[in-house]
Specification:
Blueprint: E1 2-3, E2 6-7, H1 12-21, E3 23-27, H2 34-37, H3 41-65, H4 69-79, H5 84-96, E4 100-101, E5 110-111, H6 131-143, H7 147-153, E6 158-163, E7 166-171, H8 172-175, H9 177-193, H10 197-211, H11 215-227, E8 233-240, H12 254-262, E9 272-281, H13 282-292, H14 295-300, E10 320-332, E11 344-347, H15 353-356, E12 361-366, H16 367-370, H17 375-385, H18 396-409, H19 416-420, H20 426-447, H21 453-467, H22 479-494, E13 497-499, E14 505-507, H23 509-529, H24 532-541, H25 547-560, E15 564-568
Parallel strand pairs: 3-15, 10-12
Antiparallel strand pairs: 1-2, 4-5, 6-7, 8-9, 9-10, 11-12, 13-14
Length: 571
């Protein structure tokens, strides 16, 4: 069957199996949820306008991701009315939120249409441009004195298109002017209805940021967003740059990097946009704030702490808010469910200018995402792969505690200049760093009385079982999974955990503490090197895929892996 001239790339029976038997549902809140019932009438109206904004942003992200996304989605929606085959293809499209993407299990990306592939530069760049040609064009434009044009091309907030034998950059606010105008209007309506003055103020700044080609407006919006601790609603514009694999390749060209640096031009991967909407949960938020109170102390305990300025605000206090949220909408980048879905997020990222201008950060945790767990399958994994004495230490709530430590970890350690200098390895090392800060600093939370020694053991055991029992060798686009494999190999070699002759897990909890500290130290050393070569050596050294990795992967596949995620939205 062809859609717009492109043949569906997956046989009908296989496709139907994928979208019915290999799907994990993440069910978001509806109007019957207690969180919604507890809102004022004004905030209920505001919430619906915020969800409308989120839906519009999804089309923006689709355009950023692939030039065929929007037209193929529209064609599938028409064809689905008359064809079950097309309806299944549409369901897969919506789960990937695009025509192609990793499912976290298969080595190669899933491609819904024959001949329609992902591009390293997504649709941020011309789809026919290579890393060699990009570097060549940038050098030529610098030769011609087009300094400002190059700076715009290598900005996080531009779409890049060909311009004769060169390139031109179009700011997001211009390229997506119609969509951004609609989103701004929805935010202004929400601001009119909301009962919270601080949230109202933030929405006003964020609306203006969508309407003006002015990075200062993004800075102001981010600053206001990061200050909100007691507001009833959550609205996030996510700007993360994990998807652009083309811009970071410039860091491998040392001569070009030196040339750009001399001109104070810093290549930054393009931001993929998304929107999150939800209702703040007070009980869950209170727990987060207990962890927050320890962060300044933890900063002083970081390896090589005297060699860099901490991200969290130095000795003047912690610029960080944290909220647990019942989720009403996840769109755009949040809905690119390609091998996983985020359970929490710490923004702005280190490359964002708001941090350099004195702004703070905000951690948001997704209650509905972390609750979507298959308990029956988990028990089968424990029975087959873990000694019985450790079963009592598996606890899904402990996974949430680890994630809190991970997200807080992004606020610790060397600043963005150290991270971006690692080129294509920057995201792998940063996600791995956050993991290791969580694992290393958890004993400090025991000392503070926030968690118990028993909970610490649960955190370590659950971390290994949930994160390190991989279902496939990760590709280089899966930063979190590559980080998991690094940690598996290091801690296994260190003797923090091992498998017996029956291939069942054992853990030395004392070595988990010391091994985590040792690995964190090596990780910070890599960031401080500012060397892509050092990062590559580190990643290559610790990403061996061994016999036990394959045994675990095969077992989990036999259980019936559900690599596709369907977000059930109701607003």
């Amino acid at each position: 069957m062809k859609i717009n001239g492109f043949k569906i790339n997956i046989e009908a029976e296989d496709l139907h199996h994928r979208v019915t038997e290999e799907v994990r549902e993440v069910v978001l809140i509806d109007e019957k949820h207690s969180a919604y019932a507890g809102l004022s009438e004004g905030d209920k109206k505001a919430l619906k306008h915020l969800v409308n904004a989120a839906k519009i942003m999804n089309d923006v992200a689709l355009e950023m991701d692939h030039p065929l996304n929007l037209v193929q989605k529209q064609a599938l929606e028409v064809a689905a009315a008359e064809s079950e085959y097309a309806a299944d293809a549409l369901k897969l499209f919506n789960m990937l939120n695009g025509v192609a993407g990793s499912n976290g299990v298969d080595k190669e990306p899933v491609e819904i249409f024959e001949g329609v592939h992902q591009y390293d530069g997504r649709n941020f760049y011309p789809t026919d441009i290579s890393e060699v040609e990009l570097a060549k064009i940038i050098n030529k434009m610098l030769d011609d004195g087009k300094i400002a044009e190059v700076q715009d091309i290598l900005s996080a907030r531009t779409m890049v298109r060909r311009d004769g034998d060169g390139l031109k950059a179009i700011d997001y606010t211009e390229y997506f002017a119609d969509e951004f105008s609609e989103i701004a209007n929805e935010l202004e309506c929400a601001a009119h209805y909301t009962t919270d003055d601080l949230f109202k103020d933030y929405l006003g700044w964020q609306a203006q940021a969508f309407l003006q080609n002015n990075v200062e407006m993004d800075i102001l919006a981010d600053k206001h967003w990061a200050k909100m601790q007691e507001t009833p609603l959550e609205f996030t514009v996510s700007r993360e740059n994990y998807d652009d694999k083309l811009t970071p390749t410039l860091f491998a060209d040392k001569e070009l990097c030196a040339r750009l640096s001399a001109l104070n031009i810093k290549p930054v991967p393009k931001d993929m946009l998304g929107i999150r909407v939800g209702i703040v949960n007070k009980e869950g938020t209170d727990l987060l704030l207990k962890f927050k109170d320890e962060m300044l102390k933890l900063a002083s305990l970081m390896p090589f702490a005297e060699q860099y300025v901490q991200n969290i605000g130095g000795g003047k206090g912690l610029k960080q808010t944290m909220v647990d949220v019942d989720i009403a909408a996840l769109t755009g980048d949040y809905a690119l469910c390609r091998g996983g879905i985020t359970t929490a997020q710490n923004l702005p990222n280190n490359d964002k200018p708001a941090l350099a201008h004195g702004g703070g950060r905000r951690n948001v945790y997704h209650r509905q995402v972390r609750s979507s767990v298959d308990k029956t399958k988990t028990q089968k994994i424990l029975d087959a792969l873990v000694i019985p004495e450790l079963h009592k230490y598996y606890d899904q709530e402990a996974d949430h505690l680890f994630v809190i430590g991970h997200e807080n970890g992004h606020s610790l350690g060397p600043d963005s200049s150290y991270q971006t200098a690692l080129g294509i390895y920057q995201h792998i090392i940063e996600e791995h760093k956050a993991d290791m800060i969580s694992a290393t600093m958890m004993p400090e939370y025991v000392k503070a009385g926030i968690i118990s020694e028993e909970q610490l053991k649960k955190i370590y055991a659950t971390w290994i079982i949930n994160r390190h029992f991989l279902v496939a060798f990760p590709n280089d686009m899966e930063a979190h999974r590559v980080a998991d494999l690094i940690e598996y190999n290091f801690l296994n070699e260190y003797g923090a955990f091992w498998f017996d002759d029956e291939k069942k897990l054992h853990i030395d909890f004392d070595k988990m503490k010391s091994g985590s500290r040792a690995l964190l130290t090596e990780t910070i050393r890599v960031q401080l090197s500012k060397s892509p070569e050092t990062a590559k050596e580190f990643v290559d050294r610790w990403t061996n895929w061994g016999e036990m990795n394959q045994y675990i992967a095969d077992f989990k596949k036999q259980l019936g892996i559900k690599p596709y995620i369907e977000i059930q939205s109701y607003f």
